[in-house]
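Hey team,

Filing this mostly as a record. A colleague (T.K.) asked me to run one chain through the structure pipeline before their review meeting, and I want the input and output archived in the tracker in case anyone asks later how it was produced. No errors, nothing strange. Just documentation.

Input sequence:
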Amino acid sequence: MQENSTFNHQADIVNSSTRFINSWFKQSKSITEELNDFFILPKGKIIGKDVIISRLKGIFGKSDEYVGGRFDIIDVNYELLNDGKGMGFVEGVAGYRNVVQKQSKIVSGPFKLYFALHNNTWKIVNIEFPGFAY
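Output structure:
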């Protein structure tokens, strides 16, 4: 029974990552469904989901579209904690063409999405992704 639990957590994290990245490539408003209510940044800084959403809208607003998005997940890891909580991450590489006024620029590099488990749902609590900055 434990193996199913392990597989489901990993699958949930991978599926959430895939939805987030695909929404990123489409510059979709549905990208926010994968985000936690607050983000935990280095040095213990905490910011609200609304700040992240504003940042994403600002990033997406600078481009006409993203084309040819691709990604590979290289590693998935998580740890279950007490009281149904947990922490985890997905890391890999991603790339896409950022098109602005009919000129395109390739944006690519490593990514790492950090997750927290709360109420049986894995949500993103920190983003390192090509083209994203806090």
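Quick notes for T.K.: Helices lie at 2-26, 49-61. The mean pLDDT is 92.
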